[in-house]
Specification:
The chain has about 80 residues and is mostly helical. Helices cover about 55% and strands about 0% of the residues. The relative contact order is 0.12.
Length: about 80
């Protein structure tokens, strides 16, 4: 393995650990942000009931525009994070 390959792998590992949202889906980003902020499904009552939140996290329901706006404001991220 050449030096450039080793450095490339180290950079890839660093980015995956420190910037996990770069290639994440909206649901993956939401799960990550919930974990980082210590938030449970029941804490997201402003976007819907716990059942609705559960369906969103399971990929059975998509976030609507209102929910995306509320989540982006809550976590201080771009709405594009969840789209």
């Amino acid at each position: 393995m050449e030096l450039v390959d080793i450095v490339g792998k180290l950079i890839e590992d660093f980015e995956a650990e420190h910037h996990p949202l770069l290639n994440a889906t909206g649901v993956q980003a939401l799960k990550f942000l919930m974990q980082q902020h210590g938030i449970k499904q029941s804490d997201l009552h402003d976007i819907g009931s716990q059942g609705v939140v559960s369906e969103i996290l399971a990929g059975k329901r998509e976030l609507n525009i209102r929910q995306v706006r509320l989540l982006s404001e809550r976590f201080g991220v771009s709405p594009a994070t969840f789209v």
